[in-house]
Amino acid sequence: MDLLRVEHVTKRYANHTALGDVSLAIPQGSIYGLLGPNGAGKTTLIRIINRITAPDQGKVYLDGREIAPEDIYKIGYLPEERGLYKKMKVGEQALYFAMLKGMPRREAVRELRAWFTKFGIREWWDKRVEELSKGMAQKVQFIVTVLHRPQLLILDEPFSGFDPINANLLKEEILQLRDQGATVIFSTHNMASVEEICDHITLINHSRDILSGEVNDIRHRHGNNIFQVDFRGDREALRMALQEQCTLLEGAEEDSIYQSLKLHVADDARVRDVIALINEQVEIRSFREIIPSMNDIFIKAVAGELKTN
């Protein structure tokens, strides 16, 4: 079941089209990557979903019905541009945002104390925001974004400014929120994090959706039938045996214990025959397909070098 549907949304500013007939469906309980280069239209789409601005054409549906003003209480939004008031105390400000989302004061204080303890910032409750490091300030903003347990979380570059330890802490929290039933829109330029946590993605470029689907399906779909075999034995004999069956791409150092060879098998039906032929010539340690990374796919898709939707 889809929690959020965007249907044929178009948004123009003067002579600029920010979004052109974009549609997507975000399954409930998933982490959905919203990708694209700067200026592609991601932020405009996020603003439309948040009802900060309205589309010129098209509609947005939340939980099966057209999104309405009161639905903002079902959404948690962490923008890329952080917006804490520097002169306010940290706890006071977090409490203020929680109550804006409709949480009773006592419940908000209890939940905030628990989150501050979990994120290691409880001693900063009575400090002013201007005293926080960038990472600490981002922790506070993440907490106030998720505190009211929204159905839909929209996280725009949530790992920006975090060291690896705290980025991993945040990643684990996002995965846990998904497992507890939240649906997450995850906007980022970090393709490694997309592979780690996203179930589906949409790639927007020049205001249009050019690639959508499940992450693993996209990576396998855009593979090029390139394989790597690690082996021990006579490399030249293996190369001679394979040269009529596939295209040889790369070899390893001759003095390594286990050597490697990359090869392209044009016909899927011939892969098993190639493996059998290799097994006759050398001792196989491993044989695996080389799947392109999301970073490679992103670059090729944006450059127009990839067959997309």
Description:
The chain has helices at 42-49, 90-100, 105-118, 134-146, 164-179, 191-197, 215-221, 235-242, 271-281, 294-302, and strands at 2-13, 16-27, 31-35, 57-62, 65-66, 75-78, 152-156, 183-187, 200-205, 208-214, 226-232, 247-251, 259-264, 283-289. The chain is an alpha/beta fold. The protein folds into two domains: 2-86 and 144-220, Rossmann fold (3-Layer(aba) Sandwich), CATH 3.40.50.300; 224-289, Alpha-Beta Plaits, CATH 3.30.70. It has a six-stranded mixed sheet with strand order 6-7-8-3-9-10. A hairpin with a 2-residue loop joins strand 4 (57-62) and strand 5. The mean pLDDT is 91.
Q: What are the key terms here?
A:
6-stranded mixed sheet; Alpha-Beta Plaits; 2 domains; 10 helices; 309 residues; single chain; alpha/beta; Rossmann fold; 4-stranded antiparallel sheet
SSE inventory with pairings:
Elements: E1 2-13, E2 16-27, E3 31-35, H1 42-49, E4 57-62, E5 65-66, E6 75-78, H2 90-100, H3 105-118, H4 134-146, E7 152-156, H5 164-179, E8 183-187, H6 191-197, E9 200-205, E10 208-214, H7 215-221, E11 226-232, H8 235-242, E12 247-251, E13 259-264, H9 271-281, E14 283-289, H10 294-302
Parallel strand pairs: 3-8, 3-9, 6-7, 7-8
Antiparallel strand pairs: 1-2, 1-4, 4-5, 9-10, 11-13, 11-14, 12-13
Brief digest:
The chain is of the alpha/beta class and 309 residues long. The chain has helices at 42-49, 90-100, 105-118, 134-146, 164-179, 191-197, 215-221, 235-242, 271-281, 294-302, and strands at residues 2-13, 16-27, 31-35, 57-62, 65-66, 75-78, 152-156, 183-187, 200-205, 208-214, 226-232, 247-251, 259-264, 283-289. It folds into two domains: 2-86 and 144-220, Rossmann fold, CATH 3.40.50; 224-289, ACT domain (Alpha-Beta Plaits), CATH 3.30.70.
